[in-house]
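Practice problem: predict the structure.
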Amino acid sequence: MLLRLVSTLAALLCTTSVIADPALGLTTRYFAGYEQQQLGFTPKFSDCMKEFGGNIGGELQCYSEESERQDRQLNVAYQSALKRLTPERASQLRLSQRAWLSMRFPHCKLEREGTGAHIDSQNEAACLLVSVAFRARYLEALE
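Answer:
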């Protein structure tokens, strides 16, 4: 389990690229090699992106709604992890979570290319979504 977690995180940290998935309308920076099932995206996200693919406002709404769903999953995973970890590891997790929370928005601001175009908003929204989804999966696997 730990080896899988480490290899997943190493791949996450070391492989970023641009992926265009016509079925989902994803044309933003994305973590290479990961399917939406591995990220834990809900079927609602896929359905939403299929419905609004190509419509910037609709896609941003899809990102926002899925981010909210992933954030709820992250909160459940965090509370569950706190309960199953030793007190020392739970304390470390609290520190880790605070650090992660403080860096996710500034980190995703870097995804803006500074063009002022809608792609900047899409890049930032996709970054936030993927960041929350990966953190939720990490917390679910944490032992």
